[in-house]
Queue: 2 jobs
Job 1
Amino acid sequence: MKNKFCILLEENRWFKSVPNALTLCNSLCGFTAMLLTLQVYQSPRGVMEVFALSAWVILFAMIFDALDGFAARIFNAASMKGIQMDSLADMVTFGVAPAIICAILAHCVKAMNIWQNIITYGFCGVYLGCAALRLATYNVHAMVEKKSSDKFTGLPSPGGAAAVCSVVIFCNEYTHLAPIKYLAFGLPIYAAVLGLLMISNVQYTHIGKWLFSIRRNKKRLAIFLVILLAIGAFRIAAVAVLINLYIFSGPIIALFEKIKFISRGGAQRQNQTA
């Protein structure tokens, strides 16, 4: 039986509004990041400092993105409206805001002719369009399947945004290792690749569920402790490497699975002909 506290939480309409409030905070973070990015032309800060600040705001929004789903389960406030709001907020924060960072960073850092502008903005548009397709697909699966999984099909939109932001923050911290002019050229291309991964069939681990499972899995707990030690020792560099390792883990694992499947098929054909 539920205790009185849980019943109180479920019956109080104010608690029911907490998940939607957290979702709104997520979208407001995305809006803030866009405003900061657009002020780069007049800001007294350095160019990369402005972009790094915008990137940090987007990463901070992921806390709200994680908490709104958690709050919906705690307060038994999950609804179709909440699902739609969550995807709309993710589109603003993890779709539009990173695309704007990539586009304006390229425009600020290097002088481009009209064709270079079109190509750069085209790459950013690929990221934006794929993020929209990814979130729409997620909504359909959430409404039709009504069950959760330990895997995502395609890169989650927060993962794509985290990859873009981690690269920006890393380059701001270590400008001697990553010259800004190379970032302005490569980041829109990387964003387009991330967008294509969002709409791919590549499988990605559900990080939230992975974290909740470490208490019952000693191997995962050990990996988690190593990750914490790496972040404590190398800070921003470790965070950037870990995020982008997660991005590339999906295609690499999928490639190994494909090779394994082909090798098994070849072995089976050999056994049949023997």
Job 2
Amino acid sequence: MAINANHPFEELDGRRCAVVERNVSPERVEFIRYILEGNGYTVVVTPSPPPKAAAAPKPVEGEEPPPPAPEPPATFTVGVTDVTFNAVNAIFGRLLRSPEGRVVTLAYWQQKEEVPSDGVPYFQKPQP
């Protein structure tokens, strides 16, 4: 358990890991793995537990039971074995590099940009 919500860590696949992101899609897992492994981190990915479903109400006599709820999409929890890792500190501290050698920016990490560009600080970029 983390001291606070800003630095979570838990056991993933039997290894103590700092949690990078939870409930991410398979495409996002590959993007995060690509960046973190390029920076020398050992990435651990495990399936996220399914969300808790509310109990379905009992059908009234004579009514047709409601259709079953759709299955939630498969999501994953991504962590790194370095328990001192914190994604926010790594991004704003300019500690992560893209495979091309550029500094990973917040917009690139959030996949809003195709290529990280740190010529203009994030707080001076125009908001969409």
